[in-house]
Structures are given as structure tokens and as C-alpha cells.
């Protein structure tokens, strides 16, 4: 940060404050080397971790190690602990593949190695415990992201196992509440390295839950589906507004993609003839253009 800007802020501040320039410069250098790393590299590293974990699980299955619960659980615990400790390092870009691979394989081995007598619904318990431990003991972007996405994933799994749609509604509520809390409290959490992956994980988990909300009853009729489409568009609009307010580009992109997909899907799900569908789309477009014109004129008058 510019020293002249800091001096100006100190002069205008009602409460005097001091700035440690050495610590500020060190934090800025760390942010430049870690948090501001190339997004494409992050994505490729994460994908590499997922593919590596699948190959590693295939190797364990071929070696007949997955059939031994003790080996699976112990190996899974060792991998989880190792990846959490590995994730404490600041060199995220170089260790992303290893951490993602170890984390996913560790969670998978623990779930496979649990005794068969344990009810299927209780398999989410170790996943939630691992997610909590990940949030407490590491600041790695990828591990926090995976841990956050796993929370709505566990609730969706409970919907599938227990055949109760209430769990999917709970997943939607948890994601929406988390996004709102992060948006309103961004000024208090922006310094925490967990903030960015936590927000991205909630956005991804929210959209995945909305997709499950749409297709659960179609793919698995026995578990009970949700007929209403209002949460689909309402959820995407909420994600769009919250992300736009806080300039979260990933959230904005996911919201726009979700709105586009659900609009197209709803269009083809309507049991109308082609003429009625066309008239409906034209009317919707005209309303949106009129709303844009009104908002644009109001914005011009405010600036004048």
C-alpha cells in the first residue's frame, strides 16, 4: 500500500492508528505469491489431484487393500493428517495435486474401511469431522474448498439414503445462510486465508445442491423429488446478487450459468406448444428490457 495513502488515511481518521510497514510489506508479498496465483494453474492442479486420487484408489483396489478395513482406515487417517499438515505450507500451487489427491483418497479409504454394521447414514459423520478439522488446522485453499463442498454433499447423501427431501432443503438453507453471512461480514474476515476458499466452496456447493434439487426426483423417484422450480431461480438470483455485491467472479459465473441452464431446462419442461413458449419468452425479454431502460434512466438522473 502507498505510504502517502496511509498518511492521508491517518490524517482523516477519527481514532489515531499506527501501521507497521514491515509487516504490511511482508503480507503483501505473501499475498502476491500465494493468493494471487494464476487461476488456470489452480484449476489444473485441482483436476490433477482428482485424477491422481482416482488412479490411486484403482491401484489400491487392484492390490486388494480396500477389502481390509483396518488397512483402509489407518491409511486413510495417515493421508488425512499428512495432507492437513502439508496444506499448512504457503506454497500452494506446487503442492495442490498432492494435497487434493491425499485428501480425497483419505476420506474415501476411511468410509470404505468402516465396519459394515454401521448404518449407511452414519458415513457422513467422519466426513463432517474431517471437514471441521480441515477448517481448524489448515489454511490451504484446495483443502478448505473441498471441506466446504463436502458439507452440502453430506446432506444430499442423507436425502438419498434416508429418502427425506428435508435434507436437501437443509443443504440449500445452510449454503444460502453461509453466503449471506460471508457477504455481510466480509470486512471482518477478509484477512483470513480461509475466507476465499470458504466462499467459493459455498457457491459451488449451492449450485450443485440446486442441480440435485432439480434432478433428484427424476433420477431416483423412490427418494422423493421437489416439484417447485422457485428455489432454482431464487437460489441463482441470490447467488448472483451476493456475488455481484462483493465482486466474487466465481460466484457470478456460477449464478449466470445456473440461470441459463435452469431457464433452458424449464423451457423444455413446459408442456406448451411452440407458439406459446415463444410468446412467453418474448414477453419475458420485453419485461427485462423495459426494466433495464427504467433502471438506466434512473441512474442517469441520479448522476445529473
UniProtKB/TrEMBL annotation:
InterPro entries: DUF4401
Source organism, top-level taxon: Bacteria
Pfam families: DUF4401
Keyword Membrane: yes
Segments forming domain DUF4401: 41-209, 222-298
Keywords: Membrane, Transmembrane, Transmembrane helix
Segment forming the signal sequence: none
Membrane-traversing stretches: 43-63, 69-86, 93-114, 120-137, 142-160, 166-184, 196-213, 219-242, 249-268, 274-295
Protein name per UniProt: Uncharacterized protein DUF4401
Source species: Neolewinella xylanilytica
Organism lineage: Bacteria, Pseudomonadati, Bacteroidota, Saprospiria, Saprospirales
Amino acid at each position: 500500500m502507498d505510504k502517502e495513502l496511509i498518511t492521508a488515511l491517518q490524517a482523516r481518521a477519527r481514532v489515531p492508528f499506527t501501521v507497521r510497514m514491515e509487516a504490511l510489506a511482508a503480507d503483501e508479498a505473501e499475498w502476491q505469491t500465494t493468493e494471487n496465483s494464476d487461476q488456470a494453474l489452480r484449476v489444473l492442479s485441482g483436476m490433477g489431484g482428482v485424477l491422481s486420487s482416482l488412479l490411486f484408489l484403482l491401484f489400491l483396489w487392484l492390490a486388494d487393500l480396500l477389502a481390509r478395513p483396518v488397512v483402509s482406515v489407518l491409511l486413510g487417517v495417515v493421508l488425512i493428517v499428512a495432507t492437513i499438515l502439508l496444506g499448512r505450507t504457503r506454497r500452494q500451487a506446487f503442492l495442490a495435486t498432492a494435497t487434493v489427491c491425499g485428501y480425497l483418497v483419505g476420506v474415501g479409504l476411511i468410509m470404505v474401511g468402516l465396519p459394515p454394521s454401521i448404518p449407511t447414514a452414519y458415513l457422513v459423520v467422519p466426513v463432517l469431522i474431517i471437514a471441521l478439522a480441515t477448517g481448524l488446522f489448515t489454511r490451504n485453499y484446495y483443502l478448505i474448498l473441498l471441506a466446504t463442498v463436502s458439507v452440502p454433499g453430506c446432506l444430499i447423501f442423507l436425502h438419498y439414503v434416508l429418502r427425506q427431501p428435508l435434507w436437501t432443503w437443509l443443504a440449500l438453507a445452510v449454503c444460502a445462510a453461509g453466503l449471506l453471512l460471508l457477504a455481510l461480514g466480509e470486512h471482518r474476515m477478509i484477512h483470513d486465508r480461509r475466507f476465499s476458499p470458504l466462499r467459493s466452496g459455498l457457491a459451488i456447493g449451492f449450485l450443485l445442491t440446486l442441480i440435485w434439487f432439480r434432478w433428484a426426483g427424476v433420477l431416483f423417484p423412490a427418494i422423493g423429488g421437489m416439484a417447485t422450480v422457485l428455489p432454482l431461480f431464487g437460489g441463482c438470483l441470490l447467488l448472483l446478487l451476493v456475488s455481484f455485491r462483493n465482486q466474487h467472479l466465481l460466484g457470478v459465473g456460477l449464478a449466470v450459468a445456473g440461470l441459463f441452464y435452469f431457464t433452458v431446462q424449464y423451457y423444455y419442461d413446459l408442456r406448451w406448444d411452440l407458439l406459446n413458449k415463444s410468446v412467453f419468452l418474448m414477453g419475458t425479454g420485453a419485461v427485462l428490457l423495459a426494466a433495464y431502460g427504467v433502471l438506466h434512466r434512473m441512474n442517469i438522473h441520479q448522476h445529473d
